[in-house]
Amino acid sequence: MSAAAWHAAVAVLILLLCSRLAAARVQLSHGGALATRRRDNVPATACALTAVPFGYPCEEHQVTTDDGYILSLQRIPRGRRAGAGVGGSGLGQPVLLQHGVLAVRRQLTNGVQDGMTWLLSSPEESLAYILADRGFDVWIANTRGTRWSSRHVSLDSSSRDYWDWSWDDLVVKDMPNMVDYVCTHTGQKPHFVGHSMGTLVALAALSEGRLADKMKSAALLSPVAYLAHMTTPIGILLAKTFVGEIISILGVAEFNPISSAVTNLMRELCRHPQTKCYDLVRDLTGMNYCLNNSAVDVLLQYEPQPTSTKTMVHLAQTFRDGVVSKFDYVWPKVNMEKYGQPDPPSYNMSNIPASFPLFLSYGGRDELADPADVGLLLRDLLGHDRRKMTVQYLEQFAHLDFVLGTCAKDYVYNDVISFINRLN
Residue 266 and residue 109: Cα distance in Å, rounded? Predict the structure, then answer.
């Protein structure tokens, strides 16, 4: 079967499976009392689930965005040792950690990370604990729609309106509101550390002149901006077959990776002759060098989490179009209403203030943040002050090594901390 014929067959299959997904979603939304999702059957707070059992002080905070989403932040104000902060005060320089988009089950689905990503390994390996033990005031972000940030002032998370957002809204709403909150509560500008889509949100915000005056620096691990050279076969197939668009047309605004319809869809996609699904962690992210499999197993216990279908569409557009731009509504009239022009505006990474301190670390085996795409980003940053930008290339690293790698402390985190300390 030719590639074109296969894509056509997959598209028909997707229509059938997504119809089932839409029907299942309607039943959930109109079945009286909402079914309790498995991801909610966990301890009441992220702190109780992660940091507190290891002996770390941990606080739960909430911030409400301008459009009504109630976001959760976890704060580890100091390490396990009393007086671990600067000068023994226990309140050091704040650092805000932002998770990415990808989490995986070992069997046939992908979804969204939340702030727990930074807390799943041991205190000797997790960046959040390492920073706290080094005297930093650590804040952990959770974007809208994830387990700890699933509430809204007026919308129910089962409604379509609740999921009507793309990562553009994280740029304009979530990240600015969380940075403002940290600034207000600490009286200091935070350093930012992001992974995967967390770096995309930061880069887009900085390119539009947001937050450069409210953050001290940004450390970007597996930086994502361009996606044109993404090499993961499953990701490419999902983008080329317009899966997100089809699901959206069918009225499904929440992309829930644990639904049977999505799981069945992934099984069918895995039958593609160029797609291997024996180990999705590897097949989606690349051959990781020092992945902590125990931490991955803990992550998988709580299932990947949903995101908006609109965000999945937006990421697919970024891959297909080869540019970093705002969400494309396709119809010129709708784009005109939203943006005042027939095509969505691009995020110009060269507009990031040249004097803003940046640390970029990327891996040679990363199939999502491919080195060629990072190269395009670095090309945009050629005008950046060389004294304000540190670039680290790790040939053996893949996408998850940066957050769940047993050797990430030695290869990445120590350099991030040195970068931050130079600025302090």
Answer: 6
